What we know:
By secondary structure, the protein is of the alpha+beta class. It is built from four helices and four strands; from the N terminus they run H-H-H-E-E-E-H-E. It is rod-shaped.
Amino acid sequence: MKVPAFLRRQRGSAVVEMAIIAPIAFLLLIGVIEYSIVFYTTLTMQYAVREGARYAVTGRTDKDPAASNQQRYLAVIQQIKNNSMGMYDSVNPVISVNGTSYASSSAYNANMFGNPGDIVVLRLDCTWKLATPIVAAFFPSGQYKFTVAATMQNEAF
């Protein structure tokens, strides 16, 4: 059986069309996945800072990894890490409490979360390194910067 001429001319056209469309389709798909990861990271860190603030207002220190001489600020940071689904170290957070920024762990101090009845504003300034070049092109230096915060009043402790 002989194939009609109009069908012979269209052989391979699907492959050519797929070769043209596939890179664009995959790029869009990967971009959507990257944006989903960015939003997931933001929501996860918001949850972690809220749980850290809830822990901070209790005045407890039992979450500090050190067995002796437990510190409240180390316990709060550990609580944030525990609730960040492993993203704490990936976002390189800068911790601010009541407007005072603590860029390094050497700046932490025993009074950074205040006394009973004080208002505590716990804020994390985070940076997420983007992996997809097309998505990274929309952000300065290929990084998504975001801030998460929680405000609560210290309990009587």
